[in-house]
Amino acid sequence: MDTTDTTPASQKKSFSTVFLIELWERFGFYGMQVLIVYFMIQQLGFADDRANLVWGACAALIYVSPAIGGWIGDKVLGTRRTMLAGAFVLALGYACMSVPTINTWFLFSALGVIVVGNGLFKSNAGNLVRKIFEGDDSKIDSAFTIYYMAVNVGAAASQLFTPWVKNYVNDVYGHGYGWHAAFAVCCFGLLLGLTNYLVMRHTMRHIGSEPDRHPADPRKIALVALGGLAAVAVSAAILQYENLARAFVLLAGLTVLVIFWILIGRGDRRERAGLMAALILVVQTVFFFVFYQQMSSSLALFALRNVDWNFAIFGTHLWTWSPGQFQALNPLWIMVLSPPLAWLYTKAGQHGRDLHIAAKFALGFVFVAVGFFTYSSAAWLAVNGKVTSWIMVWGYGFSSLGELLVSGLGLAMIARYVPARMSGFMMGAYFVSSGVSQYLGGLVANIASVPKGVTEPTRTLSIYTDLFFELGVTGVICTLIAFAVLPWMKRLGRIHAGEA
């Protein structure tokens, strides 16, 4: 009797291996993200505006870097090797941040290491999932849904845990050691992921790109290492100098627009229609990520200064969070909302009533706007400058639903409207566009920069709520524009499908 594993079992084992290393990688990344703005302000003495811009520029670099890392995985080192190298480099970056003697340049260099590690890891981990189920389209959607859950499980766990570690170690040992202990936890998460991969590596031997099938070339490894060192130096310089960061973001944005312009000009009628539709949705996604970036900047500082960290119902105290832990509400809501939303998509599709993807984007902006109006209601509900933590719960709930309708469908939009021969390249352009908007989100967060020395909640409250109200109004404007272009989007869709 044949007792060898069936192909589906082999797929499950291979997918589990990538799923787990992705979970631990996201644990490390979001554990760092939840603390980084607080660290720069509270430990290094940065003003609000500088901390917001540094993190905005770093987020931009983090989103741009996978476009290069994906090419290295496909053409140079191999998808599997590049992903592992990325995980190791990320662990090194978090280890650098755990050094207690950290200063500004050392911090920027450590963040540069994280940028490089993310670039090597992110696109290649996702590419391995695609390769595992290649030729089995019926399972790809399901696999990526579960894979997205790995992102949110890792994010929620670390965003709840690392702030607690920081507070506990600071309380027991003092001297700010808690920050570095929390960053060390991020490093430990990556090491766990790497260890797990090494134990399960036999499940991945048949998965990878063409370079993975050949012995590693020491010269290529050396060239990638040298390029990585150069990228760390460039990233540190971009984070240090504001004008350089702005020039980088402007160049990246112009590059994406030029690429779209060239491709639209060269395509046939159907391709032009699809690319024009994709460009419109990419622009809408850029606006969405400006809103999204507030979670780790203006909303994080609002939670620090103007939110009562105690959860209570009818006067009964339930539990207390630290301000950083409120960011965990985003992945927690994503996990709650994803299954019913997927069910609604399926039921609507079965009855021929599925909404056009552009309509889903427009609805996404509706919920984003409601989320920011919820935050801004603190202006009327606060007592002595402090607002109930439930405002954050419901605000994050609406914002997360908006995220699922916009960001969650972004890559599906590229797959739907972009010709197959351009899909890999355009995926990179999509991430670059998202990176540009991360920096723009930092600029927007600076509208709510609190002057140094101002600590009274009654004085900081209106600074934040005014911004949140303005963002809510902006969300309404984005909604109106998205619905206004919907007929055009439908027409472009029909041309792309060859129906007009």
From TrEMBL:
**What does the entry list under GO cellular component?**
plasma membrane
One Pfam family of this chain: PTR2
- Keyword set for this entry? Cell membrane, Membrane, Peptide transport, Protein transport, Transmembrane, Transmembrane helix, Transport
Answer whether the UniProt record assigns the keyword Transmembrane to this protein: yes
Topological relation to the membrane, as annotated? Multi-pass membrane protein
Lineage top rank: taxon: Bacteria
Q: Where in the cell?
A: Cell membrane
Molecular function terms in GO for this entry? dipeptide transmembrane transporter activity; peptide:proton symporter activity; tripeptide transmembrane transporter activity
Bilayer-crossing regions: 23-41, 53-72, 84-100, 177-200, 221-241, 247-264, 273-292, 328-345, 357-381, 393-415, 427-447, 467-486
InterPro entries per record: Dipep/tripep_permease, MFS_trans_sf, MFS_Transporters, POT_fam
GO terms for biological process, alphabetical: tripeptide transmembrane transport
Primary location class: membrane
Question: What name does the UniProt record give this protein?
Answer: Amino acid/peptide transporter
Source organism (scientific name):
Salinisphaera hydrothermalis (strain C41B8)
Upper lineage ranks? Answer: Bacteria, Pseudomonadati, Pseudomonadota, Gammaproteobacteria, Salinisphaerales
